[in-house]
Specification:
Number of strands: 2
Radius of gyration: 36 Å
Distance between the termini: 110 Å
Strand content: under 5%
Structural class: mainly alpha
Helix content: 55-70%
Shape: globular
């Protein structure tokens, strides 16, 4: 019996003995409401309005028929809704979204329905087949197709696609999404961001906001993965070894976050992914979820693998503007700011929410240490204060969360970006200086920043004095000299106050370390082998860093003496027990390793090494230096293949400097031959392979890199020509140069031959041939390889540039050579002006 409605606020009466569950009934009403909304929009269109049956044809379109069939069943599910397969009521909506017959208004309403199901957690309440349902939603929405009727409706659909994908990630059931699907969601959202650049500003902002929210939600999952994996591994270790939880590994970096005395230690996690589908699973299942699918981890529930791919993608966005042409109506300055700011903002969001967890996974940490910091160094020197500010925010976050694992990167950023800009070097603007000093002051306000800088950099013989440089900068910048007072002076003074205030607070809070006696090395001990026994005990690491600072000071004084007089410099280092009384090659080599000098210091030393060290020690020392040099150029070769044009070109120029700046140092011929084979030839060969159409995409301006390496190859060849021409392998070396030059002449870029490379080759090859001719190395009777050397040279040169022989050896000279060879019993000049000895084969 139905009750009567006495008042507006009086509810319906319930049947006796029946418990009404309004939530389940409400779910059925919600689904029914969405069915009605989609059908109403479809009926507005003539295509869906009516349909006559003809022969075997259906009376209604399959899309409409599926909604009507669903409507028949939904109210019968209301008392057992949790046991209903979500795909039963989702599939009609997904079919509309994926159909290319529906217009934008219909697709938009269907997307709104799916968005409603996700946000009201209708799907989350289901028990069966939730994983498949969510996967199907993502697959359908990422491949959405619709008929564009007008621009406004199209933008509405694009906006709703973003909403649904973001709702999929935010739903409780998102833990069931695989790494592969999460990557697809990010790719789709980014495509929409790119597509929105040609749409309204509102859609652009919505798309970018959705991308930020997506990245934040994905990376906020990383600390949860770490906590679950750490909990499982700790339980396993404690069962095996009750004392295992108390054991830590020292990483050799002093970090005193709480007391200023102990080093914080990060325990890396070996977990690659973790599933949160069922908290009641047993230990065996949990272990399988943590270790993941070893064969195809991208199909596991999302975790570290997809985050590695996404973070790599975000880093690659910083290079995207190099490969995109700017339209004639675009503002280059605004564009140069817009793209990096978007990418840097996404990266900052990922670091903010993932925190220290990123440092616990080797692949993510490697991306931060290499790809990210390379780009931070590059964009930190941008002329835009806004980009510099964003870069500094990222570095401050990284310092806060994982400074122990970024020692070298932080040193490079402070020395190469912040201090450089703050000192107004290389034309930094006032705004850039202000941002740099503001950032330095922010760092100074971190409780343990200054003592950590001093202990980890100023007291490390292999690092620069960051603390000293920063203190000097703030001191000099606090008071104006011959200029009016500015905000920079006030900022610098704030930094100094923060430093002194931090010192005062630490003095009042910390317990003092036992009094230390003055440092006296006493006797020689290899200074590069000094280690701290226990970084967790200030009675160990404080004396250690004091001793290393003492050694560093003495080394710098020794460098100063050495640059004036190498012999006196060595004697000083022996007097302070940093070199043994009887000098040995290894100890002297390590001094050069840690000295703050250049290659030209090495050259000055090489001339006086025999006098200072003696014959035998000098030879051994030279061998050590040449080995270090070879490792250096081999390492630079790898950077010469970097995808980033600026990094690649700079590395090539540095390689040329290392190869051509060693005139004063004797290198044996086999080392030069090894350098050509393993460094120069290999580098040029790899660049030519990269230029092929079938090669990996992402390299830009490969033509410019090939030009630089060609110049490098011929410059080094000419510089070492006199020395290497005496080698029995010189003919092979020369033919290697010509073979690669010939390949460069034939290389194509985007299907077209280069204009720069042939012009360059013609010039440098002609100069090289003239030098070889003048020095007597190239001639028909030259001692290097006999006449076959002459013949093979011109065979290759004809393939490269046929006119060069007549330019280097004019006709009258060739006639004289012919007469000389006839008189000497040789055959006359053969066709093509190639001289061949009568006893040699022409093959």
């Amino acid at each position: 019996m139905m009750g009567c409605l006495d008042d507006v606020n009086t509810p319906f009466s319930e049947p006796m003995g029946c418990t009404l569950k309004p939530f389940k009934g409400a779910l059925a009403c919600m689904v029914n409401s969405e069915i009605g909304a989609v059908l109403a929009v479809m009926r507005r269109n003539v295509r869906w309005g009516f349909r006559y049956a003809a022969d075997d044809d259906q009376l209604e379109h399959p899309l409409i028929h599926s909604f009507k069939e669903l409507r028949k069943n939904i109210f019968s599910w209301q008392h057992h809704w949790n046991r209903v397969d979500p795909l039963l009521y989702l599939q009609p909506f997904l079919d509309v979204i994926q159909s290319d017959e529906t217009g934008a208004p219909i697709t938009g309403v269907a997307l709104s329905s799916v968005y409603k199901f996700l946000t009201l957690e209708i799907i989350d309440s289901a028990i069966m087949n939730v994983e498949k349902a969510l996967h199907q939603i993502v697959e359908t929405v990422t491949s959405c197709r619709f008929e564009v009727t007008d621009p406004a409706s199209e933008e509405v659909v694009l906006m709703k696609i973003l909403q649904v994908l973001l709702a999929c990630m935010k739903s409780k059931a998102s833990a069931n999404l695989s790494n592969h699907l999460v990557c697809n969601i990010v790719n789709t959202c980014f495509r929409l961001v790119h597509q929105a650049s040609a749409k309204s500003e509102l859609l652009q902002r919505i798309a970018r906001h959705a991308m930020h929210e997506l990245v934040r939600h994905i990376f906020s999952h990383l600390p949860y993965i770490d906590s679950k994996a750490h909990e499982f591994h700790q339980q396993s270790r404690l069962r095996a070894d009750p004392e295992a939880g108390e054991k830590h590994h020292d990483n050799g970096c002093v970090s005193a976050e709480s007391t200023g005395k102990s080093a914080s230690v990060a325990v890396p996690s070996s977990a690659s992914s973790v599933s949160t589908r069922d908290e009641t699973t047993d230990e065996k299942t949990q272990k399988e979820e943590i270790t993941g699918n070893r064969e195809n981890p991208m199909m596991d529930p999302y975790g570290v693998p997809c985050m590695v791919e996404i973070f790599h993608f975000l880093c690659s966005l910083l290079n995207v503007m190099e490969s995109i042409e700017i339209g004639s109506r675009s503002n280059p300055i605004a564009y140069d700011e817009d793209v990096p700011l978007f990418a840097l903002g996404l990266i900052n969001s990922a670091i903010e929410v993932s925190g220290a967890s990123s440092g616990n996974h080797p692949e993510l940490l490697a991306l931060i240490q290499k790809d990210l910091f390379h780009n931070l160094m590059r964009f930190g020197l941008s002329m835009s204060p806004l980009i510099l500010s964003t870069v500094c925010s990222i570095v401050l976050n990284l310092y806060h969360h994982m400074r122990i694992k970024l020692k070298l990167q932080l040193e490079a950023f402070f020395s190469g970006v912040l201090l450089r800009i703050a000192q107004s070097k290389h034309g930094a603007s006032y705004q850039q200086q202000e941002v740099a000093i503001e950032t330095l002051v922010d760092f100074c306000r971190q409780p343990m920043f200054m003592p950590e800088m001093y202990a980890n950099f100023d007291c490390d013989i292999s690092c620069s004095n960051v603390f000293e440089d920063l203190a000097n900068l703030l001191s000099k910048s606090s008071f104006p000299v011959d200029i009016p007072l500015s905000a920079l002076n006030t900022l610098a003074l704030d930094g100094l106050i923060a430093m002194i205030q931090g010192m005062a607070e630490r003095i009042s809070q910390d317990s003092f370390v036992s009094e230390q006696a003055s440092i006296d090395l006493g006797e020689y001990r290899p200074f590069w082998t000094e280690i701290c026994k226990d970084y967790s005990d200030p009675n160990h690491w404080v004396p250690f860093v004091r001793k290393m600072k003492f050694i560093k000071r003495k080394l710098l004084i020794g460098v100063d003496h050495f640059n004036r007089d190498p012999k006196k410099g060595m004697e000083f280092l022996q007097g302070v027990h940093l070199l043994p009384e009887k000098r040995e090659p290894r100890s002297v080599a390590c001094f050069f390793r840690y000295m703050a000098g250049s290659l030209v210091s090495l050259i000055r030393w090489s001339h006086k090494a025999k006098e200072a060290l003696g014959q035998e020690a000098a030879i051994k020392m030279t061998q050590d230096i040449t080995e270090m040099w070879l490792r250096l150029v081999q390492g630079l070769r790898k950077f010469c293949l970097d995808r980033r044009e600026e990094v690649r070109d700079h590395a090539i120029l540095m390689l040329q400097r290392c190869l051509t700046g060693v005139d004063g140092i004797y290198f044996p011929e086999d080392l030069w031959l090894q350098c050509f084979d393993q460094v120069i030839f290999t580098l040029l060969d790899e660049l030519l392979n990269v230029a092929q159409p079938s090669s990996v995409k992402g390299y830009r301006s490969t033509e410019g890199a090939i030009v630089l390496v060609l110049k490098l190859m011929f410059k080094v060849f000419l510089q070492s020509l006199h020395h290497l021409s005496q080698s029995t392998s010189f003919c092979k070396l020369w033919l290697g140069v010509l073979s690669l030059t010939e390949r460069c002449m034939k290389v194509k870029f985007k299907g077209k031959r280069s204009e720069k490379i042939p012009e360059l080759i013609s010039e440098i090859l002609k100069n090289t041939l003239l030098v070889m001719k003048t020095s007597g190395i190239l001639g028909p009777s030259n001692p290097v390889g006999g006449d076959s050397f002459w013949k093979l040279t011109w065979v290759h040169v004809h393939n490269i540039c046929p006119s060069l022989q007549s330019e280097v050896f004019p006709t009258n000279e060739l006639e004289q050579l012919e007469n000389q060879h006839i008189q000497a019993g040789c055959s006359p000049l053969s066709e093509g002006n190639v001289i061949v000895s009568p006893g040699n084969s022409t093959a």
